[in-house]
Amino acid sequence: MLADSNSTSAPLAEIQNFTLFVSSWNVGGIAPPNDLNMEDLLDTQNNLADIYVLGFQEIVPLNAGSVIVPENTTTCMQWNSLISTALNKIDVNNITLQEAEEEESVRVYPLKKGSSLKFNVENSTQFECIISKQMVGIFITVWARSPLLPYISHTSVSCVGCGIFGYLGNKGSVSVRFWLHETSFCFVCSHLASGGKEGDERQRNADASQILSRTRFSCDSFQYLPRKILQHDRVIWLGDLNYRIYLPEATTRSLVNDRQWSILLQNDQLKAELREGCIFNGWQEEDIEFAPTYKYYPDSDDYYGCSQNGKRGKSRAPAWCDRIIWFGKGLKQSQYNRGEFKLSDHRPVWAIFKAEVKVPSPLY
Q1: Which of 51, 123, 134, 189 sees the fewest Cβ atoms within 10 Å?
Q2: How many Cβ atoms sit within 10 Å of the Cβ of residue 321?
């Protein structure tokens, strides 16, 4: 008599959706003021995600001194403190009994036996940093709901410098990966080569190629763990990718003034790369329906090079330098927008994703 085929099979799994908030911001080497309110950027009043991934570029000025010092603990702590304040400033008294029960049944699985409702509600609205890493000006920090922490594993980071001499960290990437339940995630935060001249996009492509080929995560001799970016289940790339627009500056400025986004995006360098499938073969980006994020006068709504106080600055045509793209299946983007912080010459961008996660089924 044949044995029951289910008796020796692996535990069954089901697919659940988790919400990801992803943001990127080039802060232009400006330290955050202590009273900077990150709630507007994190959109905590309208949405509350399960995991927050924030990437920054130029968190320190990119000069000769900073390039040889890959980490600045004080600056990273400032940003993380502001993020923690924004994420954990939630009024749990406004959460109803039904919302709390739905929250826990959907987002936290399996529920711990004997947990009180009060315990679940409080923990569902608290976030902790699970991984945080800086390389010169590039900084990425990942925050998750506290009840998810037992189900997050295999955290790892990999840094790739593509700057001076092809290896220093004034340009490059900091990538992080982790498992949530039985699904692997990889987030690449990068700052690619700058420059608005014809042909400068080739160096950006080269930087991206280096990041894909040189990024390596730690392995485990007892089980298979993906080591390269594209081997992970869910992959998101964010950062100041620095791609510009294939149009004369005067034409670009005129189209920006008229809010002709579709014409501009037809000539966007990154969109061209996504279409042609060279470096970013298979990558996707949601439709852009917001103004170019670069380059502004700090503390101003005026693009750099426009007349301000009777002076004309060095030419910098507006562009969507700051981007969020993704690779593979199991990700569905619901929002793509920019923030209106005026701290630097860039505006931040942010996106919300639903991510499919394989979760072990309960054993009864």
Answers
A1: 123
A2: 28
Q: Are 7 and 338 in contact (CB under 8 A)?
A: no
Angle between helices 97-107 and 117-124 (to 10 degrees): 70
* DSSP letter assigned to residue 13: E
Q: Rg (Cα) of the chain, in Å, rounded? A: 22
The encoded tokens of residue 332 equal 């569905």
Q: Where are the alpha helices (DSSP H) in the chain?
A: 39-42, 64-67, 73-87, 97-107, 117-124, 200-214, 249-257, 261-266, 269-276
User: What tens digit of pLDDT does each residue of 226-283 get?
Assistant: 999 999 999 999 999 999 999 999 999 999 999 999 999 999 999 999 999 789 999 9
Are 327 and 230 within 8 A, CB to CB?
A: yes
Dihedral over alpha carbons 124, 52, 127, 152 (to 10 degrees): 80
CA distances from 252 to 211, 255, 260 (A): 30, 5, 9
- pLDDT value at 117 more than 60: no
Q: HSE of 235 in the Cβ direction (CA atoms, 13 Å)? A: 18
User: Which whole-number Å values give the CA distances from 280 to 62, 254, 326, 342, 355, in the listed order?
Assistant: 27, 29, 10, 30, 21
CB atoms within 10 A of CB 218: 12
Distance, in Å, from the CA atom of 353 to the CA atom of 335, rounded to the nearest integer, reads 7
With beta carbons less than 8 A apart as the criterion, state whether 39 and 88 touch.
Answer: no
